[in-house]
Design goal:
Largest sheet: none
Family: Belongs to the RER1 family.
Helix content: 55-70%
Number of strands: 0
Protein name: Protein RER1
Structural class: mainly alpha
Function: Involved in the retrieval of endoplasmic reticulum membrane proteins from the early Golgi compartment.
Order of helices and strands: HHHHHH
Number of helices: 6
Radius of gyration: 24 Å
Oligomer: single chain
Shape: extended
Subcellular location: Membrane
Strand content: under 5%
GO biological process, one term: protein retention in ER lumen
Distance between the termini: 72 Å
Length: 196
């Protein structure tokens, strides 16, 4: 390997200016993502706002229906992954009785773990909206199509996919949402201290 053959290095062995720029840009981006992690509601409100702006843009331009359809399919795919367990219970089971609680001491109860965590779901959905928004600036993506057919096909696809997912949830008895589930708390601290 000769001098300067490694990725991002200049002839003298130091990282090139372009490589350093994009590395720094990636670090800043990751820093903003890390800071936004605890603000779930704010993140989703921003994403819904971007989605609303995108829909207004498509409505005003009267085009880019294929891009919107592709965005809808992408979001549906993300949503199904968000609702699905990380490990498919149908592959883990030998019997058709469904999952059960541990019966032996060496077995372990495993809570519901998503295939696609909420943060990655939000991040991918937001990136998808931004990519679709960028596509509306290029006429090449404005393929003429009769949009009511796309809407009907998307509704049918959504209903069939969700019906299959709900049947899977009922069969293997899992609920992908924590809202409404019982939360167990320990004893509350009464705040009394002992003086020595």
């Amino acid at each position: 390997m000769s001098e300067g053959d490694s990725v991002g290095e200049s002839v003298h062995g130091k990282p090139s200016v372009v490589y350093r720029f994009f590395t720094r840009l990636g670090q800043i981006y990751q820093s903003w993502l890390d800071k936004s992690t605890p603000y779930t509601a704010v993140r989703w409100i921003v994403t819904l706002g971007l989605s609303f702006i995108y829909m207004i843009r498509v409505y005003l331009l009267q085009g880019w229906y294929i891009v919107t359809y592709a965005l809808g399919i992408y979001h549906l795919n993300l949503f199904i992954a968000f609702l699905s367990p990380k490990v498919d219970p149908s592959l883990m089971e030998d019997s058709d009785d469904g999952p059960s609680l541990p019966t032996r001491q060496n077995e372990e109860f495993r809570p519901f773990i998503r295939r696609l965590p909420e943060f990655k779901f939000w991040h991918s959905a937001t990136k998808g909206i931004l990519v679709a928004m960028v596509c509306t600036f290029f006429e090449a993506f404005n393929v003429p199509v009769f949009w009511p057919i796309l809407v009907m096909y998307f509704i049918m696809l959504f209903c069939i996919t969700m019906k299959r997912q709900i049947k899977h949830m009922i069969k293997y008895r899992y609920i992908p949402f924590t809202h409404g589930k019982r939360k167990y708390k320990g004893k509350e601290d009464v705040g009394k201290t002992f003086a020595s």
